[in-house]
Design a protein that fits this description.
Helix 5 runs antiparallel to helix 6. It is globular, with a radius of gyration of 15 Å. It has one domain. The two termini are 19 Å apart. With 126 residues, the chain is mostly helical.
Length: 126
């Protein structure tokens, strides 16, 4: 299997694992939900988990890969405010936790680029 064939499956696996984690251990995700969003944080946690699982499924299937990868790139941009919220909320926590929260911020960039690359690669095949 070539790198270009593995990349979408790895991205789908990452999204599936993250989506499942939203249900297996929702509390840490609840803490990242920006307070200005309406409704209970748990609803947003579960909703984003469902969305990640749906994106994973869409990327895993070649027929829906392009649109799902583009949606995943948008999703990674859309959850950036939650990462900012986490960094703000964790600014007084011990240094390793603060560092982890801050490290999540630039991590969104390679995720967006990865998803866009998967979409472009699939478009090139059509």
């Amino acid at each position: 299997m070539t790198r270009s064939e593995r990349s979408p499956l790895l991205l789908a696996g990452l999204l599936a694992a993250a989506g499942a984690a939203h249900f297996a251990a929702p509390r840490p995700f609840d803490a990242t939900i920006p307070r200005r969003l309406p409704g209970p944080p748990r609803a947003w946690t579960y909703g984003s988990g469902v969305l990640e699982l749906a994106l994973a499924a869409g990327i895993a299937v070649p027929r829906t890969r392009t649109v799902a990868a583009k949606a995943a790139a948008a999703f990674f941009v859309g959850v950036f405010p939650a990462n900012v919220q986490m960094a703000v909320d964790w600014r007084h926590r011990p240094a390793p936790l603060r560092t982890a929260a801050l490290a999540r911020l630039p991590l969104q960039v390679p995720l967006v680029l990865w998803a866009r690359g998967v979409a472009r690669s699939e478009e090139g095949r059509s």
